Amino acid sequence: MWPTAELHVHIEGTLDADLIRALADRNGLPVPAGAGRGAPFRDLQDFLDVYYANLDVLRTRQDFHDLGAAYLARAAAAGVRHAEIFVDPQSHTARGVPVEDVLLGLSAALADARAAHGMSGGLIACFLRHLGPDAAMAALEAVLPHREHLIAVGLDSTEVGFPPALFRDVFERAAAEGLRRVAHAGEEGGPDYVWEALDILGAERIDHGNRALEDVELVAHLRATRTPLTVCPLSNLALRTAGPDLADHPIAVMLDEGLRASVHSDDPAYFGGYLDDNVRALVAAGTVTEDQVGVLAANAVASSFLPDAGKAALLAEIRAHAEQIGAAVPALALDPAAV
Ligand code: ADE
Ligand code: ZN
């Protein structure tokens, strides 16, 4: 198993049918009608409607701890050595769950994973675009008292109709508070959404970014600035934003173009797999080679918000793994200065 970093997983998207039933039972709630529903979905909104309805069973700090712990154990088995995890605080506070129960429950699971699996990680609080910029600013104010549990802010939910520019002020404020910035863009929205995320929000990573390939100037810019793209192939098939054949997935073009793309899981309970499942599916489809799997892992580590020493340590693990299995050592693992 290649050591790697998970940079694009929504913790609410790891809530599988078994855990939904267990939490519904524990909290005395009905099992949501969408429990167990999986791919394919008509589009992003069709999926999001199920995803938001199912997370109603998450009520207590213990629930968030258990959700995080289950994910982190599964991620450790996938070779994940560092996890930067998305959480949607507004989807919980809107239901009356205190924000500290969300953040402290997940943080406790991260602390346990450090002890149990030697994994590092942190949380990225995402703003729900469909609730608009004022609600995003209120959400930022709500999480700031707990900022020691956060690495970054992000932007997710319904993309088209909610362009990044709407969220300029909240991202500016987050940056002033010392938080890193990422944004979903180019999943369903066009290259203009990616440009806005970069130029107006100051996004340091683009989540998905598939549609950036439609704009040659943008591709050149992403290459020159080594801007990371966190790509989720099984998600793209499930939401029909790529495919239907994984052999045609844009990750191959991204790597050929020299973009800093890496592979992640998005919402694994719904889309048929975790990070390792995504990578295995790409190799099975002939979309990437085993040597390129090493490149994807090195790109993920380089794209993380780990300090330089942490990146160097994980790149050394990748180099050792490549040598052990007789694969090519990824260039970034040979020359950490290129990170
Ligand atoms: N929230 C959870 N999964 C998402 C996705 N794939 N795109 C946007 N928002 C999301
Ligand atoms: Zn996502």
From TrEMBL:
InterPro entries: A_deaminase_dom (IPR001365), ADE (IPR028892), Ado/ade_deaminase (IPR006330), Metal_Hydrolase (IPR032466). It is an enzyme of class 3 (hydrolase). It holds the Pfam family A_deaminase. The active site is at residue 187. GO terms for biological process: adenine catabolic process; hypoxanthine salvage; nucleotide metabolic process. Its EC number is 3.5.4.2. Residues 3-319 form the Adenosine deaminase domain. One of its GO terms (cellular component) is cytosol. Substrate binds at residue 267. The keyword Repressor does not apply. One of its GO terms (molecular function) is adenine deaminase activity. Zn(2+) binds at residues 8, 10, 184, 266. Keywords: Hydrolase, Metal-binding, Nucleotide metabolism, Zinc. Its cofactor is Zn(2+). It catalyses: adenine + H2O + H(+) = hypoxanthine + NH4(+). The record marks 208 as: Important for catalytic activity. The keyword Hydrolase applies. Belongs to the metallo-dependent hydrolases superfamily. Adenosine and AMP deaminases family. Adenine deaminase type 2 subfamily. This is Adenine deaminase. The gene is add.
